[in-house]
Write a structure and sequence with these properties.
Layout (H helix, E strand, L loop, with lengths): L1 E5 L7 H12 L5 E5 L5 H13 L3 H22 L3 H22 L5 H25 L4 E4 L15 H15 L4 E5 L2 E3 L5 E3 L5 H11 L5 E5 L20 E3 H9 L10 H7 L3 E5 L8 E4 L7 E17 L8 H11 L4 E6 L3 E6 L5 H8 L3 E16 L7 H8 L5 E6 L5 E7 L3 H13 L2
Parallel strand pairs: 1-2, 1-7, 2-4, 3-4, 7-9, 8-10
Antiparallel strand pairs: 5-6, 9-10, 11-13, 11-14, 12-13, 14-16, 15-16
The structure holds adenosine-5'-diphosphate, aspartic acid and magnesium ion.
Adenosine-5'-diphosphate (ADP) binds next to loops.
């Protein structure tokens, strides 16, 4: 059974929800359909939580009121029969009364998670009723019953595999199974989530859990483009990507995919297809293990990077230095993205600065440390082995740009370049012009 996932814009209006209905029923095959919250909803829910953390209950209530008005209108336009209009209104009353309940008393992280979950809970309930109103045999699979993360907040695939089976058995034979993206329970049984943009990850985890033949991610663009279309002038769809290439692009900032989406699919060798809800006949991008195209494929950029330069107090040949450095990062559960070394110093990058002060204190006991904030990693992805001229092309493109670090060789699919975020737009544009449109 295939797993389809539709993002926020794809379920962002009654009209788009009807397009989703057409797409998922076109071939008559049963499928699991993972849905995000309607576009803008999770942002509003985050804002409501922020107001509550700040103690501003009035402002939080006002935001909930505004959101409710939007949903009342959606229900009104979505259904044709009185029976389903009334079912839709029940969904809205139930979930908004949950939202209003969280405003009372002291605000906690548990309440925040309950608030953030409502977007997907509402969109899936509404679409399930839409399908049922149109005579399509549909069951709603509650993701909170089977999506799990462990104590380290990592997806717990063995547990998901174990839990999804009885849920599917209980739902019985259906044409469509709908499930919430993004939301899950944590190791303590509380509501949690897979981080922003996490519905893509839900789809690939579910795909791996049921040993699906294909995962399709449906969004508002026709596939993975060779650069960020929000930043550079001209971009083109990439037709085929290897899992490793797509994983690097997603991890290093291509927003079309949650950073971890590709991994479960890669491990289970399940092809992932990126498709456009607004133009379903476009072929999209196919991500698989099969090498179809070679050469440089795409560029992506990840902001919010901190660079750390660590210089050993002892000079050359100080063995054990790297081990000491890495142990500190490990102890503070801080992962390193890029790393380059010279005889007596290392430069590395992190994106999680929660424990930076402690890390620096410990590093200072045996080394001198310099920190640069507001950095961006730009990542050029493709088959460098087949592209012997790539380094010249990349260096030519970077002419005039102050580069802080360059890393190549960790994989033959990626060259990472660290720059100041102020130079990001210019760097992406220059790489685009030189690598793809020269
Ligand atoms: P959804 O709500 O469907 O999950 P997202 O907004 O998360 O959609 O992802 C789709 C968006 O990702 C596109 O509209 C596009 O602006 C952005 N994007 C960033 N980089 C890329 C890229 N390399 N290729 C395609 N889209 C990209
Ligand atoms: N609704 C969630 C978000 O906006 C998850 C998703 O859309 O993938 O982050
Ligand atoms: Mg997304």
């Amino acid at each position: 059974m295939k797993v389809y996932k539709f993002g926020g814009t794809s379920v962002g209006s009654p009209e788009n929800m009807r397009s989703v209905m057409e797409i998922i029923t076109a071939d008559g095959e049963p499928k699991i359909v993972v849905l995000s919250a309607m576009s803008g909803t999770t942002n509003s829910l985050v804002e409501i939580s922020n107001k509550l953390y700040a103690g501003d209950k009035q402002a939080a209530k006002a935001l909930i009121d505004t959101l409710k008005q939007k949903y009342d209108k959606v229900v009104d336009e979505l259904y044709t029969t009185l029976e389903f209009k009334s079912k839709g209104q029940e969904v809205i009353s139930e979930h908004f009364s949950t939202l209003y309940d969280q405003v009372e008393g002291t605000f906690t992280e548990v309440k925040e998670q309950i608030i953030l979950a409502q977007g997907e809970l509402i969109s899936t309930a509404l679409v399930t009723y839409l399908l049922q109103e149109n005579g399509i045999k549909t069951a709603l699979l509650p993701s909170l019953d089977f999506m799990r993360i462990d104590e380290d907040k990592q997806a717990d695939l063995p547990k998901i595999k174990e839990l999804i089976k009885p849920v599917l058995d209980k739902a019985g034979p259906q044409q469509i199974y709908i499930a919430q993206g993004f939301i899950c329970r944590n190791a303590y049984g509380d509501i949690d989530n897979l981080q922003r943009g996490g519905s893509d990850y839900t789809a690939s985890l579910l795909g791996a859990a049921i040993d699906s033949e294909e995962v399709q991610i449906w969004t508002d663009i026709d596939g993975m483009h060779n650069n960020d279309p929000r930043i550079v002038d001209k971009t083109t769809r990439v037709d085929n990507l290897l899992f490793v290439e797509a994983a690097e692009l997603a991890y290093f900032g291509a927003k079309i995919l949650h950073p971890l989406t590709v991994l479960p699919a890669k491990d289970a060798n399940i092809p992932v297809r990126l498709k456009n809800t607004m133009s379903p006949s476009d072929p999209g991008t196919l991500i698989s293990n099969e090498k179809i195209d070679s050469g440089l494929k795409a560029v992506a950029a990840k902001d919010g990077i901190t660079a750390i330069k660590i210089r050993s107090y002892r000079m050359l040949m100080a063995y054990g230095f790297l081990r000491k450095v890495f142990e500190i990062f490990e102890r503070y559960k801080t992962s390193i993205d890029m790393i380059t070394t010279s005889e007596v110093s290392i430069s590395l990058t992190i994106d999680n600065v929660k424990n930076l002060d402690h890390i620096v204190d410990e590093l200072n006991t045996f080394s001198e440390v310099e920190i640069d904030n507001n950095m961006t990693i730009v990542c050029v992805v493709g088959d460098m082995k087949s592209e012997t001229n790539f380094s010249k092309q990349i260096f030519d493109a970077l002419e005039g740009i102050p580069v802080r670090m360059i890393s190549y060789g960790g994989s033959l699919h990626n060259v990472s370049i660290l720059i100041n975020t102020d130079n990001k737009k210019q760097t992406l544009q220059k790489l685009s012009d030189h690598l793809f449109y020269n």
